[in-house]
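ARCHIVE CARD
CATEGORY: sequence design from structure
SOURCE FIELD: tokenized fold
FIELD CONTENT:
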């Protein structure tokens, strides 16, 4: 349990939302594991009055969280396309070529770096999850299966390797040793290099009630203001920022060694918007916590009514956010029959905590549940398109947030 802010060390952490004692959201269970007790940890969101950084209070041992991470980025078409576009753009803007180096932290199965590699640009992936790192290597993306920090950065620099570009997508939200990673980025970059950092935007989480993006792997929830503070401590400044639609709404910042360029107009306007909304006040997050409680009442009442009127209900999306929504709201086998997911790695396993079986999406057509709760709302468009036949035959989807809606 953390009682001091992981960024600034302040003890003024204010609890703004408690989701209770929760299993690890990515810890899918096998048949053999169903009978064993699951580890549970408190899941509580806190706001730091010292530096404005929103964080959870519990740090679960990273070895327990990441070594067998089941998320393969390439399973999502939208994700791979998003990666292809940013790789092409950065290649053009930075005039990258055979003597450049692009590094990605949390490079997963090589979904992003493969696009640079195909263009003949040297790449290096870094990802502690051995199973996904192995897939990347087989795909031609050299990958180091270690945790990234100043030591690894120094070893690479000593070996003559500095990065012209470092991608860190969905990384800064997850690392307990936040300043180790940011310092590592600062040391590994060339003086003219750029770190392209994508991280979920706390303002989107609050505005769209995306409470199910809160889980133990996800330690930090950034505003542009708090991210600026974090980067500045290790000598990086934000040259440019964009808002992008991935992971329910994220910030993409282009961070450079301090003093090398002045911030763009969007950096200034985004910071001004945050000020006007009170993003750096605890009241902003307390009000969010109250709205999550209301949502729980609405969604469980809706599902209960459907079940009482004889409907059969399934869910779609065996990812972390699905596990959080089901466990936080107490929705299990009494309400849902199964969870559909496209990843073969997940099929045949069970959701943590609530123990719902995970099946291939074909089961939706085989069994035609009346409603399907769309847990993977971040891929809603893609999934609704893939499930056109289920919908044509009368199947309906329920979008749980920000307000339960049948489509
Ligand atoms: Zn702080």
């Amino acid at each position: 349990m953390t009682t001091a802010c992981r960024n600034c060390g302040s003890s003024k952490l204010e609890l703004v939302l408690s989701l209770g004692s929760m299993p690890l959201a990515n810890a899918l269970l096998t048949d053999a594991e169903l009978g064993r007790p699951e580890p549970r940890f408190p899941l509580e969101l806190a706001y730091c009055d010292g530096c404005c950084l929103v964080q959870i209070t519990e740090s679960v041992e990273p070895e327990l969280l990441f070594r067998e991470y089941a998320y393969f980025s390439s399973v999502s078409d939208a994700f791979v396309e998003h990666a292809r576009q940013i790789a092409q753009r950065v290649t053009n803007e930075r005039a990258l070529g055979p003597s450049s180096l692009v590094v990605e932290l949390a490079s997963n199965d090589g979904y992003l770096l493969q696009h640079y590699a195909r263009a003949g640009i040297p790449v290096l992936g870094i990802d502690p999850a051995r199973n996904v790192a192995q897939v990347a290597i087989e795909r031609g993306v050299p990958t180091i299966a270690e945790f990234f920090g100043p030591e690894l950065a120094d070893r690479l620099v000593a070996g003559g390797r500095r990065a012209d570009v470092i991608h860190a997508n969905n990384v800064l939200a997850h690392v307990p040793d936040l300043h180790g990673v940011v310092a590592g980025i600062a040391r590994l970059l060339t003086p003219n290099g750029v770190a392209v950092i994508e991280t979920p935007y706390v303002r989107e989480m609050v505005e769209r009630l995306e409470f199910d993006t809160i889980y133990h792997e996800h330690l930090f929830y950034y505003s542009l203001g708090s991210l600026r503070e974090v980067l500045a401590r290790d000598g990086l400044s934000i040259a440019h920022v964009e808002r992008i639609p991935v992971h329910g709404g994220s910030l993409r910042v282009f961070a450079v060694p301090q003093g090398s360029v002045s911030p763009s107009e969007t950096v200034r306007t985004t910071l001004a918007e945050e000020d006007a909304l009170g993003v750096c006040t605890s009241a902003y997050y307390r009000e969010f916590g109250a709205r999550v409680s209301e949502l729980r009442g609405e969604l469980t009442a809706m599902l209960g009514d459907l079940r009482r009127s004889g409907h059969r209900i399934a869910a779609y999306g065996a990812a972390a956010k699905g596990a959080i929504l089901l466990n936080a709201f107490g929705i299990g086998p009494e309400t849902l029959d199964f969870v559909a997911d496209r990843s073969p790695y997940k099929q045949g396993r069970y959701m943590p905590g609530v123990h719902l079986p995970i099946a291939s999406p074909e089961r939706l057509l085989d069994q035609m549940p009346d409603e399907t709760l769309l847990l993977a709302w971040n891929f809603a468009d893609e999934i609704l398109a893939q499930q056109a036949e289920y919908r044509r035959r009368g199947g309906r989807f329920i979008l749980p947030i920000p307000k339960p809606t049948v489509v």
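CARD ANNOTATION: Residues 42 and 338 are 26 Å apart (CA to CA). The mean pLDDT is 93.
SHELF: design records, drawer C
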